Amino acid sequence: MIGADSMHDRRALPRGAVPRRRLGALAGAVALCCGMAMAGTPARAESADVAFVHQFGDKLVAVINGPGSAAEKRQQIQPLIDRNVDVDGIAKFAMGRYWKLASPTQQQQFVTLFHHVLLNTITSRLGEYQGVRFSVGADTPHGNGQTQVATTIDRPGQPSADVDWVLGHAGGAPRVEDVFGEGVSLSLTQRQDYASYLSRNGNDIDKLLDAMRRQAARSS
Amino acid sequence: MRTVKNLLAHTRCAAPVIAAALLLGAGGCAQKPTDPDALADYNSTNDPLEPTNRFFFRVNNTVDKYTLKPVAQGYVYVVPQPVRTGVHNALANFASPATFFNDIFETKPRRAGDTLVRFVVNSTAGIGGVLDVAKGLGYPAHDADGGMTLASWGVPQGPYLYLPGLGPSSPQAATGFGMDIALSPLTYVPRGYGLLTLNWALYGIGVVDARAGVLDALDQINRDALDPYATLRSLYRQHRAAQIEAMRKDNRMTTPDWYTQ
Predict the structure, then answer these.
(1) ipTM for the whole complex
(2) What is the pTM of this model?
């Protein structure tokens, strides 16, 4: 546990920022932090969130950079998303004021379709890249008991992108509740897309579900 | 996403298109809903000119599809990535003076100092701005434009505008765009033939560079969004707010990264 953490922290630092001989001291400091965390100091929640983003990000990056077709990568990413991202919560938020207007069947269909569409979006965006690297920065409180963890994603030949992960702790363990890319919230953008579509289609939720079915069928 | 704003910045079809829109009666206001929840959505979107904006969105997209997009795709296909990065850096360096003045007007002297260092270092060691040497020295680029300056003075953003040629905007950003042109030294140099050519060349390359930078992003919006107009509006608004917030919260240190205290 301690070894893994110190390894992550080393990677998070700018290249060349820490001379090698100082790494021992750094590992010691991390060990101390972990010791404090075991003692139940407030440091625990923060470091747990950063560690969570490290682990989740490492697994995602391993799949993206790994071999296999887009379809195979999709298969590998799906369990990662289901385990680490609160997709149901994001779906409910994305439907906005229409959630309470929808029947229980429509709500259930919407959530199922949202899982498909989100996975398609993620795989279509990430699957095109090879040689992705990411580094994790600090965490800050986000309000509502949420924490925000900053990361930077580097892709070859592209400007680096700042991505912030908003984590909630509803079930005890941290889960991703929103993602901000360059200051833009994924869930809010989705919500405003759906709201506009619905208001231009007579507030008919079935039409939204049909459109999402077409999206899900298109690239799965 | 800043590039999105610049993206269709100069298609120069504005005057005839506005005239055509008025003739066709495309100008108009969205109807205010009566349902309280729908009204809350309407107010938060703040897009009372939506029908007109959507008309220009369609026009811009059509023009883009047959002109700028193929040119940008050709540029990406023919010119290798390192050269494109160099061109992008050089263009950013040409824009540094306007960034510097906006930093000052935003009362961010430390940001202004960084912009000045970037301009001096990149213009010399960076061979006319082609290489971003200053970034490696601990002076990364930041955003500053006329719209952000107006925001720092308390001027509200105002309703959403999708302008022909300019793309996503607002009264605040469009006014700021005019200020940036006024702040660019190139605007004031005497108009010799050589300089005129340079100005037009920069202008043309700038448009292609900006469009090439958002090829993937715009394709994704058009592919993944149910309502690309609303999604672009949401992205633009949020990104603008984030840029302004980053500027407000930036009280950076006077010492660069490499200086160990």
Answers:
(1) 0.81
(2) 0.80
